[in-house]
């Protein structure tokens, strides 16, 4: 193995130790995998055991193993070999291989030991094959049957067979099998217990099972044994050590007659925690996950009617060492001091020792060891290596490892060069750091140009190489060199100091007040040394403005010498403190301003209805935010189920100023549920409304609104019908609302009253056989509720129902006017007691089916009517009756009349026209009627100005006509035939344009599609004439 000092010299030459401490790569061994305790069954000669061990390191670590503290010679041991760092043992031998193993890893940087691990072998030998003697007992006596456990290793469990397999002894309060001794205990023998008992032993690791020879249990014949006090045969030791986290089981069982009962307690009186379990009729106390608080003295009490017995034992807590604090790898400069500390918990308290490269480290000279603290002063290269802190108590031992590297190197500026250019403001303080890497730390001196700097009032030189110059001026500018030196060498670095003029804020932001929605620019402009790089930023209420995120409102403007801030569409939340931050290479400056944003007030809060009557409500509220402008006034609004949205209401005071926080709302309707809200205003405008108050109903009151539009009339015989406009629900003023109808015959004094209790009713019908027909009554309608009667409406005159006319019209006559009209004439009814409002004419075609009728009504002023829309050449039956509001009277005797034949269906054809000047001459072929049509009696010529509705018409019995036209208009001409049956089909329309004067033309030989109506008013002022 290479000597340590040679390694260090080589490493120093190659610069391995010259790296900065934080960049050092530690290369000594470090554990990835350590051996653990192993217990194995030996199942075959070919079986192998593997104890794992693996470490990292550079170069790759090598390994060696020890057994019971003795180094294993792997070169001469054919059964043991390495696989990586793991130890593999073949052809296992219980005697040779049982023991405590430890792995050691080492490379050129040092050596470390692993934790120790035991290797054990589980086995179970057979019982001796000798016959067991019978056990003779008396009935009622207690007995112990001994198992006589054979040689073994590994955890065992016990059971007993009664007589023959598979009948096992069932444990209860009388019988108990100890898992500590394997013995069977019977507290009180009964006759049923007589038989052969065989002890069964199981090895939990090897899964082996062995059976003892049977032990006969024989009952003596000298009588039963009397009662006696408990005798505890199974109990735990006076002191029971228990490991942290383990499961502790305490056994306690007693013989006795009667069978004893078992109970447990802690002598301290503390109750058992819920995790403690009692098993096997309380014979076993189990404490899982044992902790410090579970330690103490436990007492088992066995008791029957003859007495009791107790046994005590102390559970003591112990724990293997467990690390609380370990050391870290360290790379320190030569001549530095090392201080490592490790701490471990454990019971009993662990002791500490230290190893260096696997060898015990003694406290002497520069090395001091106190408990878990290792101190080495004035490190040198011989201190390099792997160190281990060892914590140990009687229950275990643990190792913590760390590597120590000692660095030795000349100064170097490769990782921390001097700043090439450093700028400083005139009058400021400049600090220039000289921090070369050097082990040990270098001694530094400074030069400005070629002149070595000395301490002065303005110049300070610190031991760590830092140079500080106070109140710098332009003359301090120039080149500076730091020279660093230690025992391994010298190095230097140079930088330049540039002194700049102070930066000034020429225009800064100022405090402002602004209205919501407006936009402003906060200025921030400077004058600065051109050698400086400048950046601007803004803070709002202590937070930097994010121009990307808040670009909708904030924008930076102004160029390189200004950092003006534009704020668009300012909102209330933009009010606050704005700071312009100016950063240069040498200084930081700021200028701030307060921006007050004024807006309409915020919503008032907590609108309360303090008091309410039938027409008023006393309100109070708390003011909202004034948003930068004092509140000047409030408006109260109300809403009910009967209003559309919120409505302003009248208040006292009428005008509510901004300092008033109460008001009385007046003019409310009684017995209506109201909500109120308040709106504040200031010089900026009207704010948002407050949340609504709780719904509150006004008190009830006597109705103060009378029904309107009182009238009526009609109905059937002996009825008086009275109607009115119902009072709206919001004006009914309370529950139990209804109407009072007061009536009397016109001219009388006494009123008759009727009550209607339905609020929505708008009609009352009085039925009485004494009511004369169509008699006038004075009527008025009032309102009431449960509080009383309200006002009545004004008096109206309403007539009672009338009777239908009792007579039918006489001298009824009918005359055919055309193919579609019949005129009906009759004499009026004059001297009848009933009122006649008009006449109704009923007509039908088939006298055998009078129900297929049409009817026409006309007022009583007329005694004739034309029935139109009839079919030509058809006989109609007609009857006339009088009517009034009571209905229609009896009909006259039916008459009949036959409509005329229909007019010709052929239009005038071959229409020719000539226009000379303003004179239009028309010619057409005569129309010949069919046998089923009316004879032609003449012709109708219709003339209409284009795009006008007024029509002029002339008649002629000739087939020619002359018309004088205006030269400034366009015209449409149409010709129709005349007959008794009416007007026939019109010709095709003829269009005459004002530019056609002196033209001629002819119409189509088929019927036109846009005939002119002869019934249109004739108003056109044209001179029309017809050729005779």
TrEMBL record:
<feature type="domain" description="Ig-like">
    <location>
        <begin position="502"/>
        <end position="590"/>
    </location>
</feature>
<feature type="domain" description="Fibronectin type-III">
    <location>
        <begin position="706"/>
        <end position="803"/>
    </location>
</feature>
<dbReference type="GO" id="GO:0098609">
    <property type="term" value="P:cell-cell adhesion"/>
</dbReference>
<keyword id="KW-0393">Immunoglobulin domain</keyword>
<keyword id="KW-0325">Glycoprotein</keyword>
<dbReference type="InterPro" id="IPR003961">
    <property type="entry name" value="FN3_dom"/>
</dbReference>
<dbReference type="InterPro" id="IPR036116">
    <property type="entry name" value="FN3_sf"/>
</dbReference>
<comment type="similarity">
    <text>Belongs to the immunoglobulin superfamily. Contactin family.</text>
</comment>
<keyword id="KW-0130">Cell adhesion</keyword>
<dbReference type="Pfam" id="PF00041">
    <property type="entry name" value="fn3"/>
</dbReference>
<keyword id="KW-1003">Cell membrane</keyword>
<feature type="region of interest" description="Disordered">
    <location>
        <begin position="889"/>
        <end position="908"/>
    </location>
</feature>
<feature type="region of interest" description="Disordered">
    <location>
        <begin position="685"/>
        <end position="715"/>
    </location>
</feature>
<keyword id="KW-0732">Signal</keyword>
<dbReference type="InterPro" id="IPR036179">
    <property type="entry name" value="Ig-like_dom_sf"/>
</dbReference>
<feature type="domain" description="Ig-like">
    <location>
        <begin position="230"/>
        <end position="316"/>
    </location>
</feature>
<feature type="domain" description="Fibronectin type-III">
    <location>
        <begin position="808"/>
        <end position="902"/>
    </location>
</feature>
<keyword id="KW-0449">Lipoprotein</keyword>
<feature type="signal peptide">
    <location>
        <begin position="1"/>
        <end position="18"/>
    </location>
</feature>
<dbReference type="Pfam" id="PF07679">
    <property type="entry name" value="I-set"/>
</dbReference>
<feature type="domain" description="Ig-like">
    <location>
        <begin position="35"/>
        <end position="120"/>
    </location>
</feature>
<comment type="subunit">
    <text>Interacts with PTPRG.</text>
</comment>
<dbReference type="InterPro" id="IPR013783">
    <property type="entry name" value="Ig-like_fold"/>
</dbReference>
<feature type="domain" description="Ig-like">
    <location>
        <begin position="321"/>
        <end position="405"/>
    </location>
</feature>
<dbReference type="InterPro" id="IPR013098">
    <property type="entry name" value="Ig_I-set"/>
</dbReference>
<keyword id="KW-0677">Repeat</keyword>
<keyword id="KW-0336">GPI-anchor</keyword>
<feature type="domain" description="Ig-like">
    <location>
        <begin position="411"/>
        <end position="500"/>
    </location>
</feature>
<dbReference type="InterPro" id="IPR003598">
    <property type="entry name" value="Ig_sub2"/>
</dbReference>
<dbReference type="Pfam" id="PF13927">
    <property type="entry name" value="Ig_3"/>
</dbReference>
<dbReference type="InterPro" id="IPR003599">
    <property type="entry name" value="Ig_sub"/>
</dbReference>
<dbReference type="GO" id="GO:0005886">
    <property type="term" value="C:plasma membrane"/>
</dbReference>
<feature type="domain" description="Fibronectin type-III">
    <location>
        <begin position="907"/>
        <end position="998"/>
    </location>
</feature>
<keyword id="KW-1015">Disulfide bond</keyword>
<feature type="domain" description="Fibronectin type-III">
    <location>
        <begin position="600"/>
        <end position="701"/>
    </location>
</feature>
<feature type="compositionally biased region" description="Polar residues">
    <location>
        <begin position="889"/>
        <end position="899"/>
    </location>
</feature>
<dbReference type="GO" id="GO:0098552">
    <property type="term" value="C:side of membrane"/>
</dbReference>
<feature type="domain" description="Ig-like">
    <location>
        <begin position="125"/>
        <end position="212"/>
    </location>
</feature>
<protein>
    <recommendedName>
        <fullName>Contactin 3</fullName>
    </recommendedName>
</protein>
<keyword id="KW-0472">Membrane</keyword>
<dbReference type="InterPro" id="IPR007110">
    <property type="entry name" value="Ig-like_dom"/>
</dbReference>
């Amino acid at each position: 193995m290479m000597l340590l000092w040679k390694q260090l010299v080589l490493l120093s030459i190659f610069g391995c130790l010259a790296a900065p401490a934080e960049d050092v790569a530690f290369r000594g061994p470090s554990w990835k995998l350590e051996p653990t305790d192993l217990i194995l069954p030996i199942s075959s000669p070919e079986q192998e055991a593997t104890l794992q061990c693996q470490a990292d390191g550079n170069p790759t670590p090598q390994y060696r193993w020890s057994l019971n503290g003795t180094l294993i010679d792997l070169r001469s041991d054919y059964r043991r070999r390495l696989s990586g760092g793991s130890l593999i043992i073949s052809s296992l031998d219980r005697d040779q291989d049982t023991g405590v193993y430890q792995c050691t890893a080492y490379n050129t940087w040092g050596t470390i030991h692993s934790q120790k691990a035991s290797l054990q072998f589980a086995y179970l030998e057979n019982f001796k094959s000798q016959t067991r003697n019978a056990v003779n007992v008396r009935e009622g006596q207690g007995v112990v049957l001994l198992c006589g456990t054979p040689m073994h290793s590994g955890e065992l469990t016990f059971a007993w067979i009664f007589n023959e397999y598979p009948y096992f002894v069932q444990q209860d309060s009388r019988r108990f099998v100890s898992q500590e001794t394997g013995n069977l205990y019977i507290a009180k023998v009964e006759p049923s217990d007589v038989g052969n008992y065989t002890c069964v032993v199981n090895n939990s690791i090897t899964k082996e099972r062995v059976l003892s020879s049977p032990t006969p249990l024989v009952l003596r014949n000298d009588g039963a044994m009397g009662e006696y006090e408990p005798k505890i045969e199974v109990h735990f030791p006076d002191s029971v050590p228990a490991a942290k986290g383990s499961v502790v089981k305490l056994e306690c069982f007693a013989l006795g007659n009667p069978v004893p009962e078992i109970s447990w307690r802690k002598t301290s009186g503390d109750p058992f925690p819920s995790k403690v379990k009692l098993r096997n009729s309380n014979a076993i106390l189990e404490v899982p996950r044992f902790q410090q608080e579970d330690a103490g003295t436990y007492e088992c009490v066995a008791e029957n009617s003859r007495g009791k017995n107790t046994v005590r034992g102390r559970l003591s807590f112990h724990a293997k060492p467990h690390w609380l604090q370990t050391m870290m790898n360290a790379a320190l400069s030569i001549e530095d001091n090392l201080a490592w500390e490790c701490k471990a918990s454990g019971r009993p308290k662990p002791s500490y020792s230290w190893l260096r490269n696997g060898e015990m480290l003694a406290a002497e000279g520069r090395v001091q060891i106190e408990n878990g603290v290792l101190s080495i002063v004035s490190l040198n290269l011989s201190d390099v290596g792997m160190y281990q802190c060892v914590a140990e108590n009687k229950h275990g031992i643990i190792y913590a490892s760390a590597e120590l590297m000692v660095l030795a190197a000349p100064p170097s500026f490769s990782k921390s060069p001097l700043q090439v250019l450093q700028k400083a403001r005139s009058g400021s303080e400049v600090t220039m750091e000289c921090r070369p890497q050097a082990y040990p730390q270098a001694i530094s001196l400074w030069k400005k140009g070629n002149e070595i700097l000395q301490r002065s009032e303005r110049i300070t030189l610190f031991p760590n190489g830092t140079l500080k110059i106070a109140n710098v001026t332009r003359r301090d500018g120039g080149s500076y060199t730091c020279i660093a030196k230690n025992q391994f060498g010298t190095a230097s670095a140079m930088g330049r100091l540039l002194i700049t003029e102070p930066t000034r804020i020429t225009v800064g932001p100022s405090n402002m007040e602004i209205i919501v929605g407006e936009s402003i620019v906060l200025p921030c402009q400077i004058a600065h040394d051109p050698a400086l790089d400048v950046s601007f930023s803004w803070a709002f209420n202590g937070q930097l403005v994010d121009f990307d995120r808040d670009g909708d409102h904030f924008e930076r403007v102004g160029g390189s010498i200004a950092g003006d801030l534009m704020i668009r569409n300012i909102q209330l939340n933009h009010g606050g403190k704005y700071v312009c931050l100016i950063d240069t290479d040498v200084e930081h400056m700021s200028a701030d301003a307060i921006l007050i944003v004024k807006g309409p007030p915020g919503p008032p809060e907590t609108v309360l209805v303090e008091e309410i009557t039938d027409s008023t409500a006393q309100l109070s509220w708390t003011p909202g935010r004034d948003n930068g402008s004092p509140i000047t006034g409030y408006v109260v609004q109300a809403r009910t189920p009967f209003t559309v949205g919120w409505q302003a209401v009248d208040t006292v005071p009428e005008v509510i100023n901004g300092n008033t926080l109460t008001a009385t709302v007046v003019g409310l309707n009684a017995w209506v549920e109201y909500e109120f809200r308040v709106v504040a205003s200031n010089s900026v405008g009207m704010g948002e409304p407050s949340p609504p108050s709780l719904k509150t109903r006004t008190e009830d009151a006597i109705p103060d609104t009378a029904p309107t539009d009182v009238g009526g009339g009609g109905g059937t015989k002996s009825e008086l019908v009275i109607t009115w406009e119902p009072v709206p629900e919001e004006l009914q003023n309370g529950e139990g609302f209804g109407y009072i109808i007061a009536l009397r015959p016109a001219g009388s004094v006494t009123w008759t009253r009727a009550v209607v209790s339905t609020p929505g009713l708008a009609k009352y019908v009085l039925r009485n056989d004494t009511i004369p027909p169509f008699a006038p009554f004075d009527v008025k309608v009032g309102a009431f509720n449960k509080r009383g009667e309200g006002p009545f409406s004004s008096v109206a005159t309403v007539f009672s129902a009338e009777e239908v006319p009792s007579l039918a019209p006489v001298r009824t006559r009918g005359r055919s006017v055309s193919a579609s009209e019949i005129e009906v004439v009759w004499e009026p009814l004059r001297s009848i007691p009933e009122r006649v409002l008009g006449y109704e004419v009923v007509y039908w075609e088939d006298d055998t089916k009078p129900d297929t009728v049409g009817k026409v009504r006309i007022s009583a002023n007329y005694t004739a009517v034309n029935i139109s829309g009839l079919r030509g050449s058809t006989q109609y039956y007609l009857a006339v009756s009088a009517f009034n509001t009571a209905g229609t009277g009896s009909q006259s005797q039916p008459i009949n009349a036959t409509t005329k034949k229909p007019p010709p269906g052929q239009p005038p054809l071959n229409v020719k026209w000539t226009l000379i000047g303003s004179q239009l001459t028309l010619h057409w072929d005569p129309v010949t009627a069919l046998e089923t049509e009316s004879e032609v009696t003449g012709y109708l010529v219709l003339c209409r100005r284009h795009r006008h509705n007024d029509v002029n018409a002339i008649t002629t019995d000739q087939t020619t006509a002359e018309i004088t036209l205006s030269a400034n208009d366009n015209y449409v001409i149409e010709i129709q035939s005349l007959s008794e049956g009416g007007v026939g089909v019109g010709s095709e329309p003829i269009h005459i344009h004002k530019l056609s004067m002196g033209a001629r033309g002819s119409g189509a030989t088929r019927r036109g599609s846009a005939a002119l109506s002869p019934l249109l008013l004739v108003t056109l002022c044209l001179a029309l004439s017809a050729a005779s």
